[in-house]
Amino acid sequence: MALKNINPTKTIAWEKLMTHFEKIKNDHLKELKENQPNRKKDFSIQFQDLEVNFSNNRISENTLKLLIELAQETGLKDAIHKYFSGDIINVTENRAVLHTALRDKASQKIEVNQKNIIPEISETLQKIENFTNNVLSGNWKGFSGKSITDVVNIGIGGSDLGPQMVVESLKYYKTPLNIHFVSNIDGDHVQETLKKLNPETTLFLIVSKTFTTQETLTNALTIKKWFLESALEIDIEKHFVAVSTNLNMVKDFGVAEENIFPMWDWVGGRFSLWSAVGLSISLAVGFDNFNQLLVGAHQMDTHFKNSPFDKNIPVVLALISIWYNNFFETETEVILPYTEYLKTLAPYLQQAIMESNGKSVDRNGNKVDYQTGNIIWGSTGTNAQHAFIQLLHQGTKLIPADFIGFKESLYGLTEHHQKLMANFYAQIQALSEGKTKEEVHLDMKVSGQFDQIQTLIPFKVFEGNKPSNTILFNKLTPQNLGILIAMYEHKIFVQGVIWNIYSYDQFGVELGKELATKIYSKN
Ligand code: F6P
């Protein structure tokens, strides 16, 4: 059964939120915090190793209550049930949305079109494990009898960004294999990668759900040609592996049948890193770590499925984001992980969030007259502090931020980590509390800058009242990364449900593809 079809702006909760917004819109976070002594405790949710503190948001208890009413009135509970049960909620593509099943080791049965999908998920995981162990142990030999040293993932969009982000984020847990990613149709990207590689010891993973993507096929053909300059057709089976739903096209390309890993149409490309699309992850960090990633994601799934809305991390984060997007009329959200390991999280989330919720037609097929998906951007702290953070503090735009931090570092350089986290908390506080005229005046007096006080005060004031979420884990582990990614996946889902849009299609990418093909054929 499809999702309900309710215009959020026509609900009673929306009406109440509009009235409430007029009352609260100018309240300052500093006062909100002073007036609610237990605010941090009241506005935090602890789950496993994760603590989400949303007290630095321009909300009161009443805001949250009304937002939850909005979720209830728009049928979120029913939608969550349909999402996990494999209902055809991706109506425009006539598909279920079941990336959650890929990490569900507890269920015996999840059906898509009356077929239980659990056995094929387990079989594929087993195949990923065997393949990974075979390559890592050195048993898998290249055409000249040498073991594999390098792996190239050839894919784009969801067949690149997710695996690439996880491989980068879990670099600390790396196996001896070097993993490379080729995505862009820019031939220089391919050449720059190939020039570092030896065909005898390199494995190529062609990852494409459809196996029709121009970039991936062009890159795969160029690479095959390069490979055949040193090897024979028969050697392809030792060096080319594919992940796809399109078995015929993969076979036509020349990949041996036993080297094909399945994909399914009930997994969206941008949510597919948990499937064999994540083969590069398993090779990069070992199957056990890949499995831990799935374990973490499944824990978040269970939390999301079973927790009441006010204690439900993805639900609360989604609602707060709607509050800014639709009432404060913010346009963007910034992602600020305080670890270099997560430097590709923002590009990954850009696809996951913007390809999903960048829609302007509702589930009735009508143009919406309210805002939907926001613009996602970001970079790591503290680098961001020396780049764009100025605009967050003193610019004219209101930009809600997600600060993602870890209590412990991986290598244990304590002094560095203490300084890193001091910056993390300093930014959150500076954004929310700001610095008043009086405080600036006093500071300048103390430092003896008497002459400049009157001229500089306006430039040195920080208005504050800039919102953020604090997303804090103990440590960056595969399991915690799984929790983090699944948290954002469910946030996307909740927002799509409430905005009454279809989050799991992406027709918006088609026109450009069509025109590029036409323009190219005229050359
Ligand atoms: O750009 C559109 C898109 O379909 C994405 O949704 C997808 O992740 C990407 O292209 C790659 O698709 P495929 O895995 O089929 O090559």
What keyword list fits this structure?
Rossmann fold, 6-stranded mixed beta sheet, 5-stranded parallel beta sheet, alpha/beta, single chain, 3 domains
Explain what the structure shows:
This protein is an alpha/beta fold. It has three domains: 244 residues, Rossmann fold, CATH 3.40.50.10490; 186 residues, Rossmann fold; 33 residues, no CATH class. Helix content is 46%, strand content 11%. The chain contains 20 helices and 13 strands. The strands form three sheets. A six-stranded mixed sheet has the order 1-2-13-12-10-11, with helices on both faces. A five-stranded parallel sheet has the order 6-5-7-8-9, with helices on both faces. Helix 1 packs antiparallel against helix 4, helix 12 runs parallel beside helix 19 and helix 14 runs parallel beside helix 19. 45% of the residues are buried. The mean pLDDT is 97. 6-O-phosphono-beta-D-fructofuranose binds next to loops. The site of 6-O-phosphono-beta-D-fructofuranose (F6P) has 14 residues, from loops.
Short overview:
The protein is an alpha/beta fold.
Describe the SSE topology.
Blueprint: H1 12-24, H2 29-35, H3 39-42, E1 44-47, E2 50-53, H4 61-73, H5 76-85, E3 111-112, E4 115-116, H6 118-136, E5 150-154, H7 161-169, E6 178-182, H8 187-194, E7 202-207, H9 214-228, E8 240-244, H10 247-253, E9 260-262, H11 279-285, H12 287-306, H13 313-328, E10 332-337, H14 345-357, E11 375-378, H15 389-394, E12 401-406, H16 414-433, H17 437-446, H18 453-460, E13 468-473, H19 478-499, H20 510-522
Parallel strand pairs: 5-6, 5-7, 7-8, 8-9, 10-11, 10-12, 12-13
Antiparallel strand pairs: 1-2, 2-13, 3-4
Helix pairs in contact: 1-4, 4-13, 7-11, 7-14, 11-12, 12-19, 13-19, 14-19, 17-18
